[in-house]
C-alpha cells in the first residue's frame, strides 16, 4: 500500500513538473514576441500606425502576464505536493535506515555463529559424525571454477597399518634401502638436539612488537578502516632482504625483487653445515569474492654438498578465506613432488583442502617416499601447521577396492618418528598478530644492511609503529617514485632503439638469469658479492629506491 501511494505521488509530481516545463516554453515564446513588439514600437514612434502597434503590444503583454501567472500557480502546486509528502518520505527513510541497521546486526550475528560452529567442530569433529555428509544440500555459492571440493572424493590410495615390535624385527630385513643410501635401521630421536644448539646467539633479539589495533576486523570496521581493502605493500623493484644468522645458526640468506610485472623474487641461502638452497618464485592470484587464491610458480632447489643429493620441488596453492567478512583463515591445497635429481628418489606430498563434510583432520598432509624403481619406503603424515611424522614401510600388500572402486595398497610400517614440530607461540602472541618468535624478529632494525633492505622502508616502519595514515602517504610516494623510474628506463630503451643500439633491460644487482640445468627453464640465481659488499660496507651498486 505504501509503495502504491508513493508511486502515485511520483506520478503527480511528474505531471506538475511537465506543466512547469510547458509554462516555461510559453513564457519564453511570449516574452520573445513582446520584445519584438516593443522594438517595432520604438521604430514607429511618430507614425500613423502607432495606435495599432500599441494595441498589439498590449495583447502580447496580456498573454505574457497570463502565462507567468500559470507558471507561478504550477510552481505553487508542485511545492504544495512536495511539502505535503515530505513527512511521509522522511518517515519511510527513517524506517529503511532502521531496517538496514537491523540487517547489519543480523549478518554480524550470523557471522559470529558461523565462526563459533566451525571452531567447535574443529575442536571436536567426532561429535558431528552423524551429520549428513552429502553435498547435495550444500547452499554454497562457490562458482564452478572454485578450487575447493570435498576431500573424501580423492581419498589416499593406500592404507597404513602400524606393526608391533616383533613384526618390526622379523620383517625389517626384507625391505631394501633407498638408492640414496638410507639405512634399514633408520631411527630418529625426537629429543636429540645434537648440532642444533652448538651456536649461541650473538645478540638478544626482540621478542615483542607493538600490539595490533584493539578492534575486530569485520564488515563494520572495513567501513572505517582500510586494513582489508587497501593495497598491500608490494616489494619495490630492486628491494632486498637479508637474514644473517651465521653466528647463531650457521646460515644466512639474501633475496631480491628481480621483476615488478610480473612480481618475482630470487632467494639464496648458504649454510656452514653443508647445504645450499635457492629459488626463483613468481605468483599469480585469483580473487573469488569470498576468498583469494595465490599460486606460486617456480622451483625450489636444495643441495647437500657432502653426498651431492640435489632436491627440487615447487609450492602449493595458498588460499585466504573470508577476505571481506568474517574471521580470516588460510588453507593450503595441492600436490608437491620432491625429486632427488641425483638418485631419482621421489616424495609425493598431498595437501588436502579443507572440507566441512570430511572426517579428516583439517590441514592434513600425507606423503609417500619411493625410490627410482617405484618401490615405497616411507610414509609421511601430519598437518602443515603443527607437525610431520615419518614411518618406515616394512611390508606392502594389495587391499580390497575402496568406495571409488580403486584398489588400495596396504602398508605395514614401524612406529612413526617425529620429523618436525612447530615451536609454541611466544607470550602475548594474540596481541601481536600471532607471530612466531622468528616472525617477530624479521622486521627488527639491523645495522649494516644494504640501503635497499626491506627493514629500511619508511612506510613499513610507520605501519609497524601504528601510524596508518602516515604509512599510506609514504607508500604512495615510494610507488610514484618507482613509476617515474620505470618511465625513465622505458625512455632510455626507446632512445637506444631509435639509435640502433642493443637494448638491455633491468638487471638485478645480486642475481643473474640463467638456464636451470634440472628443468631447462630460465631462472635467476645468485651471482655473489653481497656479503663481501656488506663486509666492506660498499653499497655503490645499490639503486636508490627509498
UniProtKB/TrEMBL annotation:
Ranges of biased composition (kind: Polar residues): 157-166, 192-201
Main location: membrane
Keyword terms, alphabetized: Lipid transport, Lipid-binding, Membrane, Phosphoprotein, Transport
GO molecular function: cholesterol binding
GO biological-process terms attached to the record: lipid transport
Domain of life: Eukaryota
Coiled coil residues, start to end: none
InterPro entries, per the entry: OSBP_sf (IPR037239), Oxysterol-bd (IPR000648), Oxysterol-bd_CS (IPR018494)
Gene3D superfamilies: 2.40.160.120
One matching Pfam family: Oxysterol_BP
Acyltransferase as UniProt keyword: no
Subcellular location: Membrane
Topological category with respect to the lipid bilayer: Peripheral membrane protein
CC annotations in GO: cytosol; perinuclear endoplasmic reticulum; plasma membrane
Entry keyword annotation includes Translocase: no
Region (Disordered): 119-143, 156-210
Similarity field: Belongs to the OSBP family.
PANTHER family with a match to the protein in the record: OXYSTEROL-BINDING PROTEIN, OXYSTEROL-BINDING PROTEIN-RELATED
Listed name of the protein: Oxysterol-binding protein
